[in-house]
Fold this protein.
Amino acid sequence: MIIIGGAMVVPAMVDLYYDNADWQIFAQAAAITIGLGGMVCLACRSDIGPRVSPRQGYVLTAFSWIAVSVTGALPLWFSSLDLSFTDAVFETVSGLTTTGSTVLTGLDDMAPGLLVWRSLLQWLGGIGIIVTALALLPMMRVGGMQLFQMESSDRSEKLSPRIREMCLQIVMIYGILSLICMVLYRVFGMSWFDAINHGMSTLATGGYSTSDMSFAKFESSLALHWVGTVFMIAGALPFTAYAVLVRKRSFAPMMHNTQIRLLLLIITFFTALLTIRLLHISDDGFLRSVTMAAFNLVSVITTTGFASGDYLEWGPAAIMLFFFATFIGGCAGSTSGGFKMFRLYVVFSGLRAHFTRLRSPSAVVVSHIDNHEITSDIYNAVTVYVFFLAISYIGVSVALGLAGLDLVTAMSAAATALANVGPGLGPVVGPAGNFQPLPDSAKWVLNVAMVLGRLEFETLLVLLLPAFWRD
């Protein structure tokens, strides 16, 4: 909360520079948020160090995200936008979870401080997601993430020095990549204001833009689309791989990383299919077709949510491909949401092992991913994750239907919220639509769904068990 409150100073300074009265709102919200966070720190201070057990980790993770979502909504709620509390929280949750769904219109004429705050929410949410995925989820054994447990001789419940060192290194890498992205956006034609905002939301795979047209505002510049494509992929790669790259000064570990190779293979294959489709239905040349196909597909697969035009006009085959791409996601330990590459690999490894044993019942099949054995507890954790994903998808879709949404809107909104993508399908929540027309009840359902998908389901659902709170 102190970090979120401190970040509010940035849009306050931007609005003050542009002589916009909202700077006072950001200053007051910053004082409230920092004050609340400071009081909690003082109330909980201890000399025993950051001792976190797995059960405490569940509570810490869930309530931290809830706290920063509510306090982060304060500037939007009290700003000149005249948003309801529901809309302010929805916009904030969508930002922090890097989903990118929005209830706002008129972005082209909006106060600069508010645009910066939306982008900053996504940038902070992105690094928060990486740190959570590397420091807490493996310890809590959520969704097979124990596969990424860092080796350490310190087996106590303290966050080991190695984890803290790795997280600090990743924060620096995240900042440097964001800066490079901003500079390249500026070099290829964006204004500094647009470049800074889009740079933050691109690497965070969030998708907030400074225009209602999203990336279609820069439709004439194919170079900007390729910069966006490259850095969306960069945000979807495991940040531990960057740390290894810096330490070993070699690209070999990244090139042999199973998750990275699988992600690039899927992107290449789907982009080829979409390019063929665009060449068939439009008069665009090959370069423009492959650029639009790659940009929009990477935006969906990496759960960024930028849109360069309405890809729902590309025909039923393209719509189905985009719908299934919604669930795929990037790599574990990245800013992207979705199913994740390592789980996809684990599922197919399990299927291969199962069919091998059907053919040869006495066969012993041992699967590996990047020199790590895929043990039975990892298979079980991924199976539980798949079950929770399916049940949550059905539950959220039904809840949205009860809130008054039609079938296509309900099912695509549930998918885009749980996978943290942003745009869905249909005229309401599609790439050319907006979530503003949805009833408040549907927005609160989607708030829960976005956090549920971002925290890998089990982290929140375990809190519903009475046994969790005993003793």
User: Anything to note?
Assistant: The CA atoms of residues 91 and 102 lie 6 Å apart. The beta strands are 368-369, 372-373. The mean pLDDT is 89. The longest strand covers residues 368-369.
